[in-house]
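Lab notebook, bench 4. Still working through the backlog of constructs that have no structural model yet. Next entry is a single chain of 310 residues. Request: give me the structure tokens for it.
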Amino acid sequence: MTTLEAVATYLPSRSVPIRSIADELGLDNAQVRVFERFYGLSHILREPDGTVADLMLAAAGKMEELRGREHRIRYVIQARTMPVVAPYPVNPVHDVRRILGLDHAEAFAVFHHACASGLLAVELSGRLLEADGDPDALALVFTGEKTFTPAARTVPGTAVNGEASAAVLVGLGGSRDRVLSYATRTYGRFNAGLSLADAELGEFQQIYPDALAEVMLAAVDRAGLTLKDVDLVLPHNVNRVSWVRLCKLIGLPLDRVFLDNIPVTGHCFCADPFLNYRSARDLGRLNPGDRYLMAAVGLGATFSAMVLEH
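Model written out:
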């Protein structure tokens, strides 16, 4: 069974009020107020001098569980939202592999599920490790990106993107943070993402809560559980109002969704569920035996959920 052997996160020290970068984001005062008062957004994090490789290395540097186990790493996977995160011929995941002394490992990136690619990478890691047949082998998954272009800084009318990173050590057969199920569905007719026509964008916004609810409930059912058995939901941090609506739709108490990071980190691409995992653990919101659900939505449009047992 796939397990999360460790999760380490890196949060840049620079906290930026979204109001202070309104011009950069193309927001007027009314739109800023909507983000602040209605969506629950306040600040984002930025690493002004670092590259995406620096973000990955900073997260790896906080993972004590990696020390002495480097020889067991079989795969190094960068899960990202955007197809291109650095100018050619730079390849950040290969650079990180080399710097960490993991040249013996296979290195590649996945991005086809956009902001849901982090959950895809964990699922893929488990499948690859199981197929290899070595119970001691591990995969190292990285999430988190730079807001290096205007298109990367915001999801118009929905979220403001920040910079943070997470490193996830994936193994087989551990006793903690066992993956119980995974569900995903892609609505290909919305593949244009940020370039959707107004009519298609309106349709995507209309199906969004039902589509997310569908994969969450599917993951819960595949785990042999009911929604009442889920102790905590670790969401993607696009905004607060979308989760309020989702909770009303499926009858989930809002206090079982970890929303603490939304006002302080913004939406950090694929890293969100793992940032929330680390924060929830540090705050004592996850106890041994708790069942929790990670959820993410990627433009394109992929809806994904994963149920785990802590």
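Notes after review: The longest helix spans residues 198-222. Residues 2-172 form a domain with the Peroxisomal Thiolase; Chain A, domain 1 fold (CATH 3.40.47.10). Flag for follow-up if needed.
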